Each structure stands twice: as C-alpha cells, then as structure tokens.
Amino acid sequence: MFDIIVLRSLKWGYAVKKIKSLEKVCSILDCFSELRPEWSLTELASQLDIPKTTLTTLLGTLQDCGYLERDPRTGRYHLGLRFFELGFVVRSEMKIRTHILPALEELQRETGEIVYLTIPRNGKVLYLEALYPSVRLVQYSTAGRLADMHATGVGKAMLAYMPKREVNTVITRWGLPKKTPNTLKSPEDLQLELDKIRERGYAVDWEENELTIRCVAVAIRNSRNESIGAISVSGPSVNFTPVRIPQYAAQIQQVVSGITRFSHLLPKPSLLADQQGYGTTAPNPVGLRKD
pTM of the prediction? Predict the structure, then answer.
C-alpha cells in the first residue's frame, strides 16, 4: 500500500493527498540538472536524507522503467532516454507552436539572429522554442533549458510584469548569481532595471548571461498585464548596435501583438509564490522589494 499524507493546499484552500513514496521519487529526479547530471547512491542519500536501502529500491525501479541509467564503471546514475522520448511528446502537444512558429520563423529571417520563445517556470526561464540562423553559433538546441531570470533578456522582460511578491520570491529562492561581470548584483539594481523595461517596453541583456552575446526581449502579457511568456532575438554583441536594438525591439513587439490572441495556448506559468517546497534548497535571501 502507498503511504499517503494529507496536506492543506494554500493555493486552492482544500486538503490535498500526497503519496510519500512517489514524492520521494520526484525529489530524486529533481536532483538531476544541467549543472549536476550525475549522482552516486551515497550522494543522493545524503542530499535527500533517505535511507540507502529505501533509495536503492527506488533507484532500481526507476532504472528498470528507463527513467534512470547507471554507469557500470562508476556506479553513478543519470537520466534515462525515457525522458528524451517524453520530451518529444510534450513538445508535440504544445498547440501554441502551430500558431506561433510561422511568426517566429519570419522574425528569424528578418533579423538573421537566434529567436527564442520562453515562459516563466518556478522562478526560472524555460525555453520552449529556439530558431537558429543557417550558420549556427550554438551547437545544441536550447529548447527545454532553464536559465536565471535576472541575467537574461527574456527573464527580465517577464519579471518586469510579474506581481511584486513573485519577484521577491524569485530573489529569495535563487538569489542573484553572477554569470558575467555585467550581471545585476543587487535587488536594487534589478528593480531599477525592471522600471526601465516597463518604461521602454522591452528588455536588453547586456552580456549579463554570457560574454559577447546580447539579447532584446519583449514580454507576452495576459489581460491582467501580467507576463506569461517572452520572445527574444539574441546574437553576437557586435550586431546589437544602438540603432539595431530598438529596431529589433519593434520587430519583436509586432510579433507579440500578432500572437496575443493565441497566448492562452501557452503552458500555464508556474509561479514560486503559489508553491511550497519546490525543487532544491534555496540560497540565502539577498534582500527584497517592499510592497
């Protein structure tokens, strides 16, 4: 039998049943990330505070089902190809792609730069779609990747139109990690930047996430003027001159205006402020905006 616990949902206001063993499985899978794609049994047991005997059973089940693979040489675990298969299913089911891809393809042809479609997910940027020039500077697809909101154009564009408590929660949860010397360093710097974004209507990544790369981004907003996604144009910094940046912004704004009627087809934004206990341990709080 499953070990079931009952929790009170703060968001919905009613009791929610949770299966503890399944929750442990989810916590195991949440440990795997781009920064740490492999774990040993001992490392997972220490990270999750799960007895090794229990963990061994759970890992074996996940391995048998194709969700994890174990390197026979090192004994370390990594995600299995079952997730690769499921990722295709998720992307193919996104109805927004049918309606928005032609507009994104036209934007890519007009600018000659990389075009991204993103949404906010648990205080991060999630890349849903990426369209590349014929000569690619990036040798892998960014679709499915997570990135920090404060250090990316799309992230800042979305933060500018998020509720204050969500911005505060993102800062508390993930901090403001320094990606380059140009990354915003404090909540005050971020707040000033978000004010500027709302004034001009678009965000610029001034090599804040990666040196030599700049980006112009515009938020996709709902009827409440809250961000539910963002579109950006990204490329070598030399292409993003003071003349071109507002031109790119105008082109993106035109695309966003044209696809607004389909925005309800975007995956529902997942906000940290509506959740409890998501993901990995948060860094120490670094200061908050006051309402």
Answer: 0.79
